[in-house]
Design goal:
heterodimer; A: 412 residues; MetI-like fold; 2 domains; 17 helices; 72% helix; B: 407 residues; alpha+beta; four-stranded antiparallel beta sheet; 8 strands; 12% strand
């Protein structure tokens, strides 16, 4: 044991020293460079003390609370933390020498192992979630001016903000149109690929490749395909000059106009520009759906199909009554993942229509959040948006669970 | 209809649908690569050019010879004392002697390349030859050329196809971006131009360093936490685990602003810390590895414990080697996520030195304007490492993605 622990801790100490030196000589632009190490080591120390002296880890939680409070107040205590880190090193060494009784050893090592992840989660996930809620209650919180507590004012403004509703309805159409299309197309491809065909590897690679290419590059390529003058798509469809990414007319309105039906606002549907982005998105994510569904298909036992075949069932009947129900857990998983991911769509929209399109016809909630927070420096309003988005996703996920999960067949 | 015929028709249908789909899926890739070797004039055609001049092997030998004459056969160049000869066939050489010039870059007072190149135009079999000699002492990487041919001379054919042909009064104006390209210099002209137009080498370094560190650090942190959750009974385990489960509900957008503020207070904006540290702990990775550790038999660990192994030793000597498939899965996911991310690096970096490849590409899309050849070359470069990685570790990619869908 000692063979591991001592060199490991020595390396940590040296690393810490180097970090200090590098900040001293400004090699690294990070005055708080050593802080993480300190926090990471203070954890095991507290855990050790907790396991050793007090029941229930009281010291640990007290230490955590202190730290969270200090962070919330924006007060930093690097020297004290450095001292703590030193204590942590000694205690960790003592613990690592395996002189503890079994229960204490489990407590000590459990906390040591879990601490780095927990510390990072606390700092970068858990605390910020509450902080987002907190700053959404202020008026124009940013680095520039003073801000004051205004309660739910930001949410009230949000409720009356036409741009927010525009972004929300765009995002709604995006989710409603891309997620089912992706799953449906993915199922078709996966079922066909599962038919014991030749060249499975080649087909799978071709369908999968778009998924691992970066959205930024893929969006650039599609922007070029959609180019109004020299784009491939206009040549293919014989529509020269059609500016796909700058056409704000809703597709439902366009489709129903010849029938004399006039649609406007939300019911006009997503714009041509946004539909073009959706097509690109379905292309990008199809491979992911195919691979997941193919794995789901391959886990369905072959006996079911054999039995159905003996009973004289046709190909379509087998798909309808065996594949579809037994694939439902996978489909359900994809629907949930797809919903959460689609609701946060940003990259392809930002690359293909950096300004949010003509008349904000491609503005999504995530993009509106980005604009508010990092273009207009209104962190409070952006946080209110983020919190609202969180609530909407949560509610939709719960509804999806209630409604869809009843139809899911888990048993084979 | 008999069964065999029906079976055959079914097969044909399956292959037809799959192949049609595959063509649609693969087309953007072909179009990206094809455009990346086009000259601007080729790219901006009303009818698409399926096979650009630069990927036609017939032109490769000329490019090779011209490059060798200028300096090197692979990458070309124009070294002092070298002479490059370009042949030009015309239908009627009697119509008049063509004119040729090495163009200056726009708005430049003096250009050594243009001034130290001596141009002679001599009659040759079936037309003319243009002899360019580097009379100066400097080496140039490219040798652009503009040639005017009288329209009366009828049809013409240059040995190396020009990048652009324009009409200028009584002349055809032929433009080459490089008449001494060498094979690679010819084929990858847009790649070289894009590479020098923006600091792509730095972008790649930032991306690889960020993604690599995230993967290595993340693997260690996730392995430790997953092992503790799966195999150690410590006070507070359930509470911490519940906390981790709860964080999965938080969408990334909620964390953007608070984490940005925290990074600003730490003075970490525009540093590697901002790119790496917030993403080191991954709940997904911890869950994935926990499943792996749970599937190992408990007896293994009990036996090791009785034999005097410490938890530290059990983790790295027993559990870690047995969880390699899970580690590879998580590593691929973490690398893909870090390499392909745009929003986060866009927010926390400002200076060009800290741009990842995606942010760099996004900036390049704005700067490149209408030079779609260069833009597609840059896009190809940006996706190349991941695609290459996929071809080397195809099985792991597919298994990893498939595994992420199974609870």
């Amino acid at each position: 044991m000692r063979t591991y622990a001592f060199p490991g801790l020595l390396a940590l100490a040296v690393f810490s020293g180097l970090l200090h030196l590098s900040t001293q000589y400004q090699i690294v632009r990070a005055p708080m460079g050593a802080l993480f190490l300190a926090f990471a080591l203070a954890g095991p120390a507290a855990a050790y003390a907790a396991a050793r002296v007090l029941p229930g880890g009281v010291v640990t939680w007290a230490g955590l609370g202190l730290f969270a409070a200090a962070m919330a107040a924006g007060v930093w205590l690097p020297p004290a933390l450095d001292a703590l880190a030193l204590v942590g090193v000694f205690l960790a060494y003592a613990g690592s020498r395996d002189r503890l009784p079994e229960r204490d050893a489990a407590a000590f090592w459990g906390w040591v192992f879990v601490w780095p992840a927990l510390a990072l989660m606390l700092i970068w996930n858990i605390f910020p979630s509450f902080f987002a809620l907190w700053i959404s209650l202020f008026d124009r919180f940013n680095f520039i001016g003073e801000s004051r507590f205004v309660g739910l004012l930001n949410y009230e403004i949000l409720w009356r903000d036409p741009l927010f509703w525009r972004a929300l309805s765009n995002t709604f159409w995006y989710v409603v149109l891309t997620v089912p299309t992706g799953i449906l197309l993915g199922t078709v491809v996966a079922v066909l690929l599962n038919e014991r065909i030749r060249g499975l590897g080649l087909y799978r690679t071709i369908y999968f490749l778009p998924y691992i290419t970066a959205l930024t590059a893929a969006a650039a390529v599609w922007q070029w395909i959609y180019h109004p003058e020299f784009g491939f798509l206009n040549w293919l469809l014989g529509t020269p000059g059609l500016d796909w990414l700058h056409t704000p007319d809703g597709i439902f309105a366009l489709a129903l106009a010849p029938l004399g039906v006039q649609l406007s606002g939300f019911w006009a549907g997503p714009s041509v520009a946004f539909t073009a982005i959706m097509i690109m998105t379905v292309w990008h994510f199809l491979g992911y759906n195919v691979v997941i569904l193919l794995a789901g298909l391959q886990s369905i036992p072959a006996q079911y199909y054999e039995a159905a075949e003996l009973d004289g069932a046709g190909w379509w009947q087998m798909q309808r009554h065996i594949t579809w129900p037994l694939l439902s857990p996978t489909t359900f998983f994809l629907a949930i993942i797809g919903l959460i991911g689609a609701f946060q769509v940003f990259t392809q929209v930002y690359v293909m229509t950096p300004t949010g399109g003509v008349l904000n016809d491609t503005l999504t909630v995530a993009m509106y959040l980005y604009n508010k927070g990092f273009r207009d420096s209104d962190f409070s309003y952006a946080s209110a948006l983020a919190v609202t988005m969180f609530v909407i996703i949560l509610v939709l996920t719960l509804i999806q669970r209630r409604v869809l999960e009843r139809r899911v067949t888990y048993e084979h | 209809m008999n069964t065999r015929l029906r079976h055959l028709l079914g097969r044909i249908f399956i292959y037809a649908v799959l192949t049609a789909g595959a063509v649609v899926m693969a087309f953007p890739f072909y179009w990206m690569i094809a455009t990346s070797v086009k000259s601007p004039q080729e790219a901006q055609q009303a009818a698409p050019i399926w096979f650009p001049e630069r990927i036609q092997p017939a032109n490769w030998r000329t490019a090779w010879r011209l490059g060798a004459e200028g300096d090197r056969p692979w990458w070309g160049g124009f070294a002092p004392g070298r002479t490059v000869t370009l042949h030009l066939r015309v239908e009627d050489p009697g119509a008049g002697r063509p004119r040729a010039r090495v163009p200056k870059p726009p708005a430049v007072f003096s250009d050594p390349r243009s001034e130290s190149t001596r141009i002679r135009i001599e009659p040759a079999e079936g037309g003319w030859k243009i002899v360019l000699e580097n009379a100066g002492t400097q080496r140039f990487t490219t040798l652009p050329l503009v040639v005017w041919i009288p329209k009366d001379a009828g049809k013409f054919r240059a040995e190396l196809p020009p990048d652009a042909v324009r009409s200028q009064r009584g002349y055809w104006r032929l433009e080459w971006v490089n008449v001494s390209p060498g094979l690679f210099g010819y084929l990858f002209h847009n790649y070289r131009e894009a590479w020098h137009a923006a600091p792509f080498a730095r972008y790649f370094f930032v991306s690889f360093f960020t993604a690599g560190t995230q993967v290595l650090g993340g693997l260690i942190i996730a392995t430790m936490a997953a092992f503790a959750f799966a195999r150690i009974r410590f006070p507070g385990r359930e509470a911490v685990f519940l906390l981790f489960v709860a964080t999965m509900m938080i969408p990334g957008e909620v964390l953007l602003i608070p984490n940005y503020i925290l990074l600003a207070k730490l003075g970490w904006l525009d540093t590697f810390y901002a790119l790496i540290v917030p993403w080191l702990a991954s709940v997904f990775g911890i869950f994935l590895l926990r499943q792996f550790f749970l599937s190992l038999p408990q007896d293994l660990f009990d036996a090791a414990r009785i034999d005097g192994a410490s938890y530290w030793g059990m983790l790295w000597r027993i559990a870690f080697p047995l969880a390699v498939p899970g580690l590879v899965t998580y590593g691929i996911f973490a690398f893909l996520g870090a390499y392909n991310a745009l929003l986060w690096p866009l927010i926390v970096t400002q200076s060009p030195e800290m741009r990842t490849i995606q942010v760099g590409l996004q900036a390049f899309i704005g700067e490149a304007g209408s030079d779609y050849g260069q833009l597609m070359a840059a896009s190809t470069m940006a996706i190349l490492p991941i695609v290459l990685g996929y071809f080397f570790a195809q099985r792991h990619f597919i298994q990893g993605i498939a595994r992420s869908g199974i609870k």
